[in-house]
Each structure stands twice: as structure tokens, then as C-alpha cells.
Design brief:
mainly alpha; two-stranded antiparallel sheet; globular
Length: 407
């Protein structure tokens, strides 16, 4: 009950920190469970990100929900992914949204009832590996997951850069990222960009019922490509294909990502394939996600130095989505500087996998304390910890992973 009391966020956090770690863990787990259960739909067998604002199923949200459910020892982690893969097309393509509660609502934007035409970061590889390590039976999902990953890599690899294409800003998961600035050759305006995003849906070209290309918007982002490579490696390890085709493809993709490192900007850059402007090099947090897969130790070290630089990304309540000294930094605005729990979690995992124990601990603290301070919000202001977006939001239950990493 503690974290759902009427106390202000700072008071709640102080009370939490006064507890011994076992009681902290129990309190955070209780709040994470309440967050997930508040948004669970038994009929659809998935967790809505937020019952009022986001009543549908999203691909990468569901993967993070599954990870959080598994941290609580709850079998709904498996149901979450089973429902996700029920949307899969014969080609293997996995849509980014499912509309189980009202399938015809999808027709407002898309061509088929019950699902979208586009995809999203394929976090199912990591989610399945986490669930398997915790003893949940996921073997029946391995084959569809491999098919989804192969479809994504085969259909979306850009032959010139070797990176993975996205054909709409929504596919990246960061639809208002500063890396898309310049698309209209005017200063960023949120209302105008929202209209433009809906226009860009209409220019998507389909193949076998799935988004294939977009003459108005095609980008090969370093961050999205890193998540593809990371999840492909996770699947390869899980399915015993560590020396096979899936792992080899992930390694080739990681090498292509490393070729996009900018020493001057200290980030990995995107490639703009269709649309105005050059490759995106805005100093955004997702531009550092290649630390999950890079084989260039110097690049990894420099990227972590950027992350923990207090003049750049390291803010009082978590890494900011845009470097604090960058033009346009706005810690309250959507993808323009705000902190997001799923990104902090991914960087924590990267630090854990690389044996950077102190870095992982610092990220785990920011993840846990940020979620608590913001009342398990969708996102928060990294300067103040104030909640932004929907409250509570399902993926803020990743705080259970943060407190787990703290011991």
C-alpha cells in the first residue's frame, strides 16, 4: 500500500529508502504488481499500457510487461507473449499493435481488423530469454519468435548501410525523437508533427499485408538496429543457435552499427534513406543503445562516459532522453529530454552484461527511484522526477527489475 498512498512522491521515496532492502524489495514488488494488475485485461490476456490512455496492446510494451510479470513470479508473463504472437502474419511479421478489445478500431489507420500494419522494436528475444532463465515454459514461442526476427531482418535490412529500416516514426518507439527533426525543414512543432505522423501512415507501402516501404519516410536508425541485433543474439542463445545463422546475422548487424560511430558527436548515427536531411546524429539516449551489441570497446567506454556525464545525460532522476546541453533539451516534452523506464532498463542490462557492476547499480537506482518518485508513470522529468504521461503505466513495473539488481 505504501507506494499507492496519497503521499507526495518525494515523501514516499524517503520512506522507502529508510526501509531495509528486503522491505524495499517487497514494497516495490507490491507497487509493480498493482501497476500491472490495474492494466491487465483477462479477456484479452495482455496488459494495457494504461487502461484509460492506451487501451490496446503494443509490441515492445508487452515484452517489458512480460519481463516485469516474470520478476514477480507470475504466469501472466507467458500469457502476455502468447497474445502478442497471436497477431503474427504467415510471413512471420509481428505487428506493433493489437486491438483485441475492438478489432474494427484498427481500421481508422490500418488495412486489417485487429492489428496494425507496422512493427516495433523486437524485444521478444530478450523477454523470452529472461522468462526461460526464470523457469517459465516458453519453448512453444521459440519458433514464432525466430520467424518474426528473420522476417524483420530479411525484409528490412538496408543493403547500403547494413542497418535495419523503419518506415514510420512509430516503428522506432521514439516517434518525436530529435533525430527526425528537419523532416519538414521547419523548427519542430508537436501539433504539426502529430499531423505529419498520421499523413506518413498513408504513404506506407505494404507487402503480404505488412509495411514494406515508405517513399516519404525511411530511416535506418542505429538504436533500433541495436535492439534487433541484441534480440537476435538473445534468441540465438535461447534456441541453441549461438553458432548459426541467427547469431551470424546479429554479428553482421553489430559490425554495421559500429561503422556508424561518430567520434566527434560521441554517438552512433542513423542513416536517412528517404526524406530530407542527413543521417541523424542528435545526442539522444537511444543513440547509445548500441552498447548492447558493440564489439568496439573504445566506443563502448566513450558511450558509457557520455551516459554518466552530468553535463550530458546523467540527471538527478535518471538519464535524459536528449543530452541536457543539446539544443532543444526539454525535460518535460515527449521524447525531447524526458526519462523513460524501458530505456534505463536496457542500459542497465548492457552494463550488467559487460561486467560494469557499479554502472549497472547506478542505473538500477535511477530506474527504481525514478519509477517510485513518479508514481509508476509512463515517463518523468529527469530534473525533478515529476510524473509525465499516463499514470500508472505498465512498463514502469520494470522497477521490480531495478530493485532486483540492487540486491
Amino acid at each position: 500500500m505504501l507506494l499507492y498512498s496519497r503521499l507526495a512522491g518525494r515523501q514516499t521515496l524517503r520512506r522507502l529508502l529508510d526501509m531495509p532492502l528486503p522491505r524495499q524489495r517487497a514494497a516495490v514488488h507490491d507497487a509493480a504488481r498493482r501497476t500491472l494488475e490495474a492494466n491487465w485485461t483477462p479477456a484479452g490476456r495482455f496488459t494495457m499500457p494504461n487502461r484509460r490512455k492506451y487501451p490496446w496492446q503494443w509490441l515492445w510494451d508487452s515484452c517489458f510487461h512480460a519481463i516485469a510479470w516474470s520478476a514477480l513470479g507470475d504466469e501472466r508473463c507467458c500469457a502476455e507473449l502468447e497474445t502478442l504472437f497471436s497477431l503474427q502474419l504467415p510471413s512471420g511479421f509481428l505487428p506493433h499493435m493489437g486491438y483485441a478489445r475492438d478489432p474494427r478500431s484498427a481500421l481508422e489507420l490500418w488495412h486489417s481488423e485487429g492489428r496494425s500494419d507496422i512493427t516495433q522494436p523486437p524485444m521478444y528475444g530478450h523477454a523470452l530469454r529472461v522468462l526461460s532463465a526464470r523457469g517459465f515454459g516458453t519453448e512453444h514461442l521459440h519458433e514464432p519468435a525466430v520467424a518474426a526476427m528473420r522476417c524483420l531482418v530479411e525484409q528490412r535490412r538496408d543493403p547500403s548501410s547494413g542497418l535495419i529500416r523503419v518506415v514510420h516514426p512509430w516503428e522506432s518507439g521514439r516517434d518525436d525523437s530529435p533525430r527526425w527533426d528537419g523532416w519538414e525543414q521547419r523548427p519542430f512543432n508537436e501539433r504539426r508533427w502529430n499531423r505529419r505522423k498520421r499523413e506518413l501512415v498513408r504513404s506506407i507501402e505494404l507487402r503480404d499485408g505488412a509495411a514494406w516501404a515508405n517513399p516519404e519516410f525511411e530511416v535506418a536508425p542505429a538504436g533500433f538496429s541495436a535492439l534487433v541485433a541484441f534480440n537476435a543474439r538473445e534468441l540465438a542463445e535461447l534456441t541453441g543457435d549461438a553458432d548459426g545463422e541467427l547469431a551470424a546475422g546479429a554479428d553482421a548487424l553489430a559490425r554495421a552499427i559500429d561503422a556508424r560511430w561518430s567520434e566527434r558527436q560521441r554517438t552512433w548515427g542513423d542513416v536517412r534513406l528517404r526524406g530530407p536531411g542527413d543521417g541523424g546524429l542528435a545526442p539522444t539516449l537511444d543513440g547509445l543503445l548500441p552498447v548492447l551489441v558493440s564489439s568496439e570497446q573504445q566506443h563502448v567506454d566513450e558511450a558509457f562516459a557520455e551516459l554518466f556525464d552530468e553535463a550530458r545525460f546523467w540527471r538527478p532522476w535518471g538519464p535524459s532522453g536528449l543530452a541536457a546541453d543539446a539544443n532543444g533539451y526539454a525535460p518535460r516534452r515527449y521524447w525531447r529530454g524526458d526519462a523513460w523506464p524501458q530505456e534505463i532498463y536496457l542500459l542497465m542490462v548492457a552494463a550488467q552484461r559487460r561486467g560494469r557492476e557499479e554502472d549497472a547499480r547506478r542505473l538500477a537506482e535511477r530506474l527504481t527511484h525514478g519509477c517510485v518518485r513518479a508514481r509508476f508513470a509512463e515517463r518523468w522529468n529527469p530534473e525533478s522526477g515529476d510524473a509525465l504521461g499516463a499514470v500508472p503505466q505498465g512498463w514502469a513495473a520494470l522497477a521490480a527489475e531495478g530493485i532486483r539488481a540492487l540486491g
